[in-house]
Design a protein that fits this description.
single chain, 6-stranded mixed sheet, 50% helix, 20 helices
Length: 621
């Protein structure tokens, strides 16, 4: 059930997650949006979904006798701060709004929605999740009274704080309140997650990534305490905070302040406490700390043992880091080995959702015990590839079989009016990218084309250098450079012909002929490239049709899917090195010059300036 279902997208997402199917009910205030929701359900194969039009707060349409109906499950993302919620509502006699010792403010219906939502779930078993503004967690007066009553009923199982600017139409942060009436009386507290920092910018909005969603789900499902992210809050602590549920009261997700060390600025050295804050790295690479730092000669301070420019290479060359990189590779290989049969076994009629669930769950398991690598970052590597490419591939195979790997998608050239012609502009494989076919079967021909392309680039650079050297008002190429700064073949030939017998312009003729030769050489190379590319395209098109199912699977599973995921995992490993390198570099540069050294340098410059001023007849006191 969704009491403010809009176009039905939230209900559809919830229904898609129901393993055994579910009956859908929704109510929507706007009549046009109600129609859109009905159409949406039909398009998503939920044609029997029930959607009604009406104001849920003043006139709930689903009834059990004269009472509003109660459901097993509910979801809702109602309009925030609904100002006219009380129109047509008698809170004093409406059982949805009684028993809370207060009534929501007339001009803010957030708690009216929450109270309706709680009532709409079946006693003792009902479960649901509602999205509301973050303010419902801490606002005072009547809302504080209602919040206290709700907490004391113990129906809130958890709260998830979301990033700001997540929803269209509002930039304020929101939260998900999880209601669970099952075993509510035995509950000792409620679980809070601060997920406000887990998002990515997407245009002018923020967006939860797949890794953010999965981390929230895993954490909430297992009630896992994670520093600066989540923990179980006992009711006694909530009571001590006057039933204020503002998340920062319970979870401090702020980053520690990067403090300046005055002693280091005065006397030099890298503060030991700053180095110790990188303990997660030293725990994984114990010898690295000794390789990078040595004693400064003063307690509590060290200095860099190597050159600043060598920090990154030293990290990569550390034996323990290389062992770590091997461990990451081995975790990937284990995942790949675990799932090769699954991937190669995809067949017509299979459900793609099953495959991504199996793949992602196993990937999380394989990377769950590797320090410094966030398994959810690795998870995102797979999910990003799934969303961008792999999902379409699996759906194609589930629809048409692995023979889809033999198929080519052609893009035809178009006339000026937009109508297609019979001439092919470009092509690519439906499943297998063209470059994979080239790399697997025609690498030698591609290498030959690359050599020619390098030669073409070299000739082009020589032409640019020659033009740059001899342009300008008195330049030897000035006569053939047009208003756009270009030299055309026609102008070049014309000028050569004009001055070919003029001895006074012999120097210009030499340069013109030199440039002309470069033009002709580059044209010949470009022609050869075009011919060889055409020949290669014909070979590739022919090869697509010749591929066996075994070859298709190897190219798609190994060279495309697995290779892409591993490349992303390597980027995570590289980012780890960059973070450590950048932090050490930052500390070195921060304390590189002591304050006395800076003062001496300033005094030296002042002295030099004073001398120069005196030479010019000025005095500076």
């Amino acid at each position: 059930m969704d009491p403010a279902c809009g176009s039905g997208s939230l209900l559809i997402r919830a229904a898609n997650e129901a393993p055994n199917g579910i009956t859908i009910y929704g109510q929507e205030y706007d009549v046009n949006t109600t129609g859109l929701a009905k159409m949406n359900f039909v398009l998503h194969n939920y044609a029997i979904a029930s959607v009604v039009n009406g104001n849920t707060l003043s006139s709930p349409k689903y009834k059990n006798g004269d009472r509003p109906e109660q459901f097993d499950f509910a979801v809702a993302n109602p309009p925030f701060s609904y100002k006219s919620w009380s129109n047509g509502v008698d809170p004093g006699s409406d059982m949805r709004f009684t028993g809370y010792n207060a009534v929501p403010p007339n001009k803010n219906g957030d708690y009216a929605w929450l109270m309706h939502f709680i009532y709409s779930l079946k006693p003792g078993t009902g479960k649901g999740a509602i999205i509301l503004p973050h303010g419902v967690l801490f606002r005072g007066n009547a809302e504080a009274t209602i919040r206290t009553a709700i907490i004391k009923k113990k129906v809130i199982k958890g709260i998830i704080g979301l990033p700001p600017n997540l929803f269209f139409g509002t930039g304020i942060p929101a939260c998900i309140i999880i209601i669970d009436k099952e075993n509510a009386a035995a509950r000792k507290g409620l679980f809070i997650i601060d997920a406000s920092r887990g998002f990515v910018k997407d245009g002018n909005k923020n967006r939860l990534r797949e890794q953010d969603i999965r981390k929230i789900v895993d954490c909430f499902t297992n009630f896992k305490d994670i520093p600066k992210y989540s923990r179980m809050i006992p009711y006694s602590e909530i009571e001590g905070n006057d039933y204020n549920l503002n998340i920062p009261r319970y979870i401090d997700s702020s980053e520690p302040e990067d403090l300046q060390d005055i002693e280091a600025h005065l006397s030099g050295g890298l503060p030991q406490h700053d180095i110790d804050e990188l303990s997660s790295y030293w725990g994984a690479f114990p010898s690295m700390k000794e390789e990078l730092f040595t004693d400064f000669g003063r307690d509590g301070y060290v200095k860099l043992k190597i050159k600043e420019d060598d920090i990154r290479d030293s990290i990569y060359g550390n034996d323990e880091f290389m062992d770590f990189a091997d461990m990451v590779l081995e975790a990937f290989r284990t995942w790949k080995k675990n799932n090769l049969e699954l991937l190669n076994g995809i067949k017509k009629g299979d459900d793609p959702k099953y495959f991504i669930e199996e793949l992602s769950n196993d990937l999380l398991q394989c990377f769950s015990n590797i320090d410094l690598i966030d398994k959810y970052d690795v998870y995102q590597s797979l999910m990003s590839h799934w969303e961008e490419t792999m999902q379409d591939d699996v759906y194609a195979i589930a629809s048409d079989g692995w023979g889809a790997g033999n198929e080519i998608e052609r893009q035809m050239a178009k006339k000026k009016d937009g109508t297609p012609t019979a001439k092919m502009k470009s092509f690519d494989g439906r499943l297998i990218p063209k470059q994979l076919i080239v790399a697997a079967f025609f690498a030698d021909k591609q290498e030959e084309i690359n050599r020619l392309q390098n030669k073409s680039d070299e000739l082009t650079n020589q032409m640019e250098e020659l033009k740059e050297e001899h342009s300008g008002e008195d330049g030897l190429l000035n006569e053939v450079i047009n208003d756009k700064g270009n030299i055309t073949k026609g102008d070049l030939q014309k000028r050569i012909k004009e001055i070919s017998k003029d001895k006074d312009l012999a120097d210009e003729l030499v340069i013109l002929k030199q440039y002309d030769k470069l033009v002709k050489d580059e044209a010949a190379v470009s022609k050869s490239i075009k011919e060889k590319l055409g020949a290669l395209d014909r070979l590739v098109i022919k090869k697509y049709g010749e591929l066996s199912i075994k070859q298709i699977k190897e190219l798609v599973v190994d060279k495309k899917w697995c290779a892409t995921v591993y490349a992303s995992i390597e980027e995570i490993n590289t980012a780890l090195v960059h973070r450590l390198t950048n932090r050490i570099t930052e500390l070195v540069e921060r304390y590189e010059q002591t304050l006395p050294e800076i003062e001496n340098e300033i005094a030296d410059y002042e002295s030099k300036v004073k001398v120069h001023l005196e030479r010019m007849g000025f005095s500076w006191k």
